[in-house]
């Protein structure tokens, strides 16, 4: 059913589970441009119901990063709005009310299956090469059995009753009609045992209550859309228009990931990419301005925006192209703007004050500062002549150690030298290794040199994004050594 509401309302709904992702900025940009083109409202909603992965600092980082990119919203958790609150954790009772309403309508049911039973079911399905999914054991439990289990305080989730016959069809703005066979769609959990909703219930309820007219999101959500369509129909609500944007891709066409490309917005901010460059570059990810024009402002994009200029080929996130485009912007910037950016981004007081204590004992003249700290200000390092492999070890072994450690560092929430040192010591004990097997290769990977200020303090100051990028490049280099 087409939307009859005049005002266009769109949203993005990032999850505060880590650093602000470049994909969030990409989706936000197209939502922002679309709503500005149509004189509508752009909303940010924080989807923080995944309590296991929730990070308390992530929400603030996401909002700060999007503001730096230059995307402003009309309603959100920081500025409020007519449909507050804009954080799902503060809307918990709303979701329970709607989940219970679905049970009353006969469109949902309480499922008392334990985690252990579901694990056995999943393993059995894998062994028999059957499609994964819930077997609907609790779907038709008699009411007296349900009441008895509730009285015994047996934990339960609420699942939707997905039709087992027919098809669910929806029209995608970019892809036309898409249909799914209902018998292949699971009875999705809507409300978990902890009382928090799953994404599927929360997103539909919130989009309806916040009067969202157009859902513009990444194509990874296409397979979830029939569940959402069915929920709209179960509630008897008008559906929004759906538009699924092509995913950002690595050079090998795989989905962009931190293992192959830096994915944190803060990495590009720290690298010295201008926000207007990043907006321009993200606009080029699947959208064509026309006449082979590659450099354009966001206002130019708003004025010329139409969906028929979008391509679905899977845009490649090319760092060389991003650097080239940034160079085009830098060429026309004034000397005063250069000076301001250098002070703010490269030589800001906060960063320098972290570095100075690490090198005070190593220098005798201020002119020695650059020689001792160059790696703090460089981009990617060159490992051609770097001593990455200590005596008695192979390139393959060191690549493996570094890969293990970069994965452990990725989940380090308290990024400080003490915590980082503990991670390394635990790894040494786990693998039965000596410090020289790991510390020196890591030092060379992150600094390019064997002689630097204390390793773990350097890692702390450089920051997670830079360290991960450099270590992964060092691993790539070690793999080429292994193949020689």
From TrEMBL:
| CDD domains registered for this protein in UniProt | GluRS_core (cd00808)
Q: Provide the protein's localization.
A: Cytoplasm
Q: Explain the purpose of this protein.
A: Catalyzes the attachment of glutamate to tRNA(Glu) in a two-step reaction: glutamate is first activated by ATP to form Glu-AMP and then transferred to the acceptor end of tRNA(Glu).
Instruction: Classify the source by domain of life.
Output: Bacteria
Report the PROSITE patterns cross-referenced here. AA_TRNA_LIGASE_I
Keyword tRNA-binding in record: no
> Which residue range or ranges hold the Aminoacyl-tRNA synthetase class I anticodon-binding domain?
347-475
Q: What is the top EC class of this enzyme, as a single word?
A: ligase
Positions binding Zn(2+) in this chain are 111, 113, 138, 140
| EC number of the protein | 6.1.1.17
Q: Which family does it belong to?
A: Belongs to the class-I aminoacyl-tRNA synthetase family. Glutamate--tRNA ligase type 1 subfamily.
The UniProt GO MF terms for this protein read: ATP binding; glutamate-tRNA ligase activity; tRNA binding; zinc ion binding
Q: What is the lineage of its organism?
A: Bacteria, Pseudomonadati, Bdellovibrionota, Oligoflexia, Silvanigrellales
Q: What does the record list as GO biological process?
A: glutamyl-tRNA aminoacylation
UniProt name for this protein: Glutamate--tRNA ligase
Subunit structure, per the record? Monomer.
Q: Annotated motif 'KMSKS' region: location in the chain?
A: 255-259
Residue span of motif 'HIGH' region = 14-24
Question: Coiled coil where?
Answer: none
Q: Where does ATP bind?
A: 258
Q: Which reaction does it catalyse?
A: tRNA(Glu) + L-glutamate + ATP = L-glutamyl-tRNA(Glu) + AMP + diphosphate
Which stretches make up the Glutamyl/glutaminyl-tRNA synthetase class Ib catalytic domain?
7-324
Pfam families referenced in this protein's UniProt entry, alphabetically:
Anticodon_2, tRNA-synt_1c
What HAMAP family does the annotation carry? Glu_tRNA_synth_type1 (MF_00022)
One GO CC term, this protein: cytosol
């Amino acid at each position: 059913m087409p939307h009859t509401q005049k005002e266009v309302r769109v949203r993005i709904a990032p999850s505060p589970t880590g650093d602000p992702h470049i994909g969030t900025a990409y989706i936000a940009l197209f939502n922002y441009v679309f709503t500005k083109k149509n004189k509508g409202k752009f909303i940010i909603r924080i989807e923080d119901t995944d309590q296991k992965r929730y990070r308390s600092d992530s929400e603030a980082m996401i909002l700060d990063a999007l503001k730096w990119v230059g995307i402003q919203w009309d309603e959100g958790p920081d500025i409020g709005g007519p449909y507050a609150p804009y954080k799902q954790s503060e809307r918990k009772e709303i979701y329970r009310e709607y989940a219970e309403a679905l049970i009353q309508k006969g469109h949902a049911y309480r499922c008392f299956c334990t985690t252990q039973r579901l694990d056995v079911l999943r393993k059995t399905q894998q062994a028999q090469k059957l499609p994964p999914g819930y077997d609907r054991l609790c779907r038709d439990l008699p009411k007296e059995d349900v009441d008895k289990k509730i009285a015994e305080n047996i934990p339960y989730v609420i699942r939707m009753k997905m039709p087992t016959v027919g098809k669910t069809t929806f029209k995608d703005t970019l892809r036309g009609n898409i249909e799914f066979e209902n018998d292949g769609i699971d009875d999705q959990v809507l409300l978990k045992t902890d009382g928090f909703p799953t994404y599927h219930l929360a997103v539909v309820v919130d989009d309806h209550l916040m009067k969202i007219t157009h859902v513009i999101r990444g194509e990874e959500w296409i397979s979830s859309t029939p569940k959402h369509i069915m929920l709209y129909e179960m509630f008897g609500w008008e559906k929004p228009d759906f538009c699924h944007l092509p995913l950002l891709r690595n050079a090998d066409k795989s989905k962009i990931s931190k293992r192959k490309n830096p994915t944190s917005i803060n990495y590009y901010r720290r690298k010295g990419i201008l926000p207007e460059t990043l907006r321009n570059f993200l606009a080029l990810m699947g959208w064509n301005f026309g006449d082979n024009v590659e450099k354009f402002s966001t206002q130019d994009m708003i004025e010329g925006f139409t969906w028929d200029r979008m391509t679905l080929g899977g845009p490649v996130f090319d760092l060389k192209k991003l650097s080239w485009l940034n160079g085009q912007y830098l060429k026309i910037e004034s000397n005063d703007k250069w000076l301001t950016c250098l002070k703010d981004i490269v030589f800001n007081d906060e960063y320098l004050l972290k570095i100075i204590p690490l090198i005070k004992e190593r220098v005798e003249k201020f002119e020695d500062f650059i020689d001792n700290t160059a790696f703090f200000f460089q981009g990617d390092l060159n490992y051609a002549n770097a001593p990455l492999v200590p005596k008695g070890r192979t390139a393959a072994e060191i690549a493996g150690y570094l890969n293990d450690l970069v994965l452990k560092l990725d989940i380090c929430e308290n990024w400080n030298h003490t915590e980082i040192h503990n991670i390394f010591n635990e790894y040494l004990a786990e693998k039965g290794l000596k410090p020289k097997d790991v510390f020196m290769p890591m030092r060379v990977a992150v600094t390019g040199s064997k002689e630097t200020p204390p390793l773990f303090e350097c890692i702390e100051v450089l920051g997670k994004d830079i360290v991960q990028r450099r270590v992964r490049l060092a691993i790539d280099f070690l793999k080429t050594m292994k193949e020689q």
